[in-house]
Amino acid sequence: MNTLHVNIVTPDGEVYDGDVRMVVAKTISGEIGVLPHHVPLVTPLDISILKLRHEDGGRTLIAISGGFMEVRQDTVTVLAETAEAADKVDYDRASAAKVRAERRLQDTKLSDLEFKRAELSLKRAINRLNLKEYGRD
Ligand code: ATP
């Protein structure tokens, strides 16, 4: 078989279910490309864009907010905290979230936890906005 079955699931439900030629994902230790016959693997994923390359050369890009990816017997399962394809992202909302997080990060009285939360919120917003940029090439 020359395809991988991909299933992307979030707490809100299934976001993607289909066969692809390759998956490119950003793990916390770097980018990884998964092709058919890949060795079994379980890895945490970064807040990043998951790239699905289709058999016809087209691709689907999905913004994910962390989670895990499991590769087993030509099946790739992604359990993500959130996952949105480019046409599902509300870019105005992401821009507003970015501004909010940036403002929050300027507050010098934030606790470490509050700072970390604002940083992650900024990272999620930038990641969603990046999807718009990617969609252009
Ligand atoms: P916000 O502050 O705008 O809620 P957030 O990063 O805190 O952003 P999340 O906690 O990552 O939001 O996501 C909460 C839910 O809202 C998830 O279901 C996620 O898919 C959805 N979501 C968040 N931001 C967007 C967006 N810009 N466009 C579409 N869906 C979004």
**Rg over alpha carbons:** 16 Å
Strand content: over 45%
Helix content: 25-40%
Question: Which small molecules are bound?
Answer: adenosine-5'-triphosphate
Question: Briefly, what CATH class of the largest domain?
Answer: Mainly Beta
Structural class: alpha+beta
- Which ranges are low-confidence, i.e. pLDDT below 50, for 5 or more consecutive residues? none
Tell me the number of strands. 8
Describe what this molecule looks like in 3D.
The protein has 137 residues and is of the alpha+beta class. The protein folds into 2 domains: 4-86, F0F1 ATP synthase delta/epsilon subunit, N-terminal (ATP Synthase, domain 1, Sandwich); 90-134, ATP synthase delta/epsilon subunit, C-terminal domain (Single alpha-helices involved in coiled-coils or other helix-helix interfaces), CATH 1.20.5.440. The protein has 2 helices and 8 strands. Strands 1, 2, 3, 4, 5, 6, 7 and 8 form an 8-stranded mixed β-sheet that branches. α1 (91-105) packs antiparallel against α2. 21% of the residues are buried. Adenosine-5'-triphosphate (ATP) is lined by residues 12, 65, 82, 84, 88-90, 93-94, 97, 121, 124, 128.
